[in-house]
Amino acid sequence: MTDKMNNVEIFDNERATGYNQFVETWIPNYHYFLDRLPKLLSETSSKDLLVVGCGTGNEIERFVKVPEHWTITGIDPSPEMIKQANEKLQNYHNVTLIDGLVSDLDFEKKYGVATLLLVLHFLDDNGNKLNLLKDIADRLVAGATFVMLDITGNRNQIQQNLKVLKLLLPDGLDKEQINNRLNRIENELFAVSEERLSQLLQEAGFEPPLRFFQSSIYMGWLTKKRSKRTPLD
């Protein structure tokens, strides 16, 4: 587990505490996307949901407030994030929160739905992205729905959409902080093109994904676990 943890972005202390404010500031339509997740997944036959990289529990909070009964497992490698999620969701008995990695989950337990929001761009495309996607696919039933939200695009797309993102940011932000963040997105994170993301998902055992949402650099993807293994796997 130690080697895998070295490949994971950990949000601790002040970074975890300020996460909610950060995503609200830097991800246009963040709440719109989360608010509609339960509706997007309302027609899935299974309501056994795996939330990978659950953070402070923002998306889980949407599912516990709808009339449909979901059984939810949230997992995150950051103890501080899990602590905040526990404080938020402690009164919901249908929620289980785990401090750890997907690879730590019981391999025999299979979920009917999974989400991976704002996680994959922290992992290098040197096998780490694919390994996470495979770990998720291996813990889903055949035909399970999988939803992703991630920074996506080739270098030109990212550069152009960062210009759009800069225009959409709230007023009053420190210019130096803006420039530092934009530079980090472009040069320090590990976004991949739409074509590469589709390839990774299919290699991991999913169907070709549908891009159903975009807000500047952030793209939402919808796919399903393939019913049968193919040579891609």
| Straight-line N-to-C gap | 23 Å
**Strand line-up across the major sheet:** 3-2-1-4-5-7-6
Shape: globular
Task: Show unreliable segments.
Answer: none
User: What structural class do helix, strand and pairing data support?
Assistant: alpha/beta
Q: What is the CA-atom radius of gyration, in angstroms?
A: 17 Å
Instruction: Report the biggest beta sheet as strand number plus sense, adding barrel if it closes.
Output: 7 strands, mixed
User: How many helices does DSSP assign?
Assistant: 10
Order of helices and strands: HHHHEHEHEEHEHHHEE
Q: Could you give me the name of the CATH homologous superfamily?
A: Vaccinia Virus protein VP39
What is the β-strand count?
7
Architecture blueprint of SSEs:
Elements: H1 2-5, H2 13-17, H3 19-26, H4 30-40, E1 48-52, H5 58-63, E2 71-76, H6 79-89, E3 95-99, E4 111-117, H7 128-137, E5 140-151, H8 155-168, H9 175-187, H10 194-204, E6 210-215, E7 218-224
Parallel strand pairs: 1-2, 1-4, 2-3, 4-5
Antiparallel strand pairs: 5-7, 6-7
Helix pairs in contact: 7-10
